[in-house]
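Appendix B. Chain record.
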Amino acid sequence: MAKVVTLGEIMLRLSPEANDRFVQTDTFRIIPGGGEANVAVSLANYGHDAYFVTKLPKHEIGQIAVNALRRYGVHTDYIVRGGKRVGLYYAETGASMRPSKVIYDRADSAIAEADPSDFDFDTIMEGAKWFHWTGITPAISDKAAKLTLLACEAAKRHGVTVSVDLNFRKKLWTSEKAISIMRPLMKYVDVCIGNEEDAQLCLGFKPDADVEAGKTDAKGYYHIFEGMMKQFGFKYVVSTLRESISASHNGWKALIYDGKEFYESKHYDIMPIIDRVGGGDSFAGGLIHGLLTKPDQREALEFAVAASALKHTIPGDFNLVNAEEVESLANGNASGRVQR
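Structure tokens predicted for this chain:
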């Protein structure tokens, strides 16, 4: 299997039990996770040599995050130890018509304050087949944006395929700032992943689709995909298509374009949702695995969508499934019967 590198921030999620609200809980569960870390865990589960790059404090709270990655087979060789704090976020799980809620407490985290001298990206990228990052990382701080650029440059020097999940977060930056940072970074990207909001707020493209109203006809994305491909020269443009029927019930599918043909995946009706945090990351991890191992974009996309559908059934940020379980669902085994 391939050496895959991801770069970003791993945080600790503090969540009330089940569907309790913040104001009524007496205890919080500690759940490690974060965009690129979640992708690394998925890829390790599929048998790849997954390396996560970040900076974490030397103290025991930082060690919680390191241990979580090691538990699931992610290589931590390139994690720099230092800085003062681990980023936190609080997540309240919604139900029915009550949406989930996230409150960030991540300012001045170790990776947000990291310097370029902390990392030797040429060494990190040596022998790698794939490098993945998300739009969350450059949004964390200007220093983190610089790290993202340096990592992309090193990846290209070493002939590494680069993917991005645009992942716009309005609590971290404005659309204007995102566009000013993200558009120049696109020249390093081979595979661009993002939904309709991400494409608009990070890159300035808007598809003819309204996911909030459940209007996710893939044809509404064709023109925007063609425009993104033409402007940035991507090898693939990919979008998930989520129908938010309620906090507990979503429709889920995806679309991929290779510059020649569009392919729309099968649709999954996910109900009840156990935990949708990390759903997009599980899709990205599945897509990377698919594009590395499958014969065409159709099979790669079906693997990614099935992987993400399964993640919605698992508590926590990490998608704790193996490739055989994903293949089973992608091949139509959705009965949920007990495996004996």
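Further analysis of this model is presented in Appendix C.
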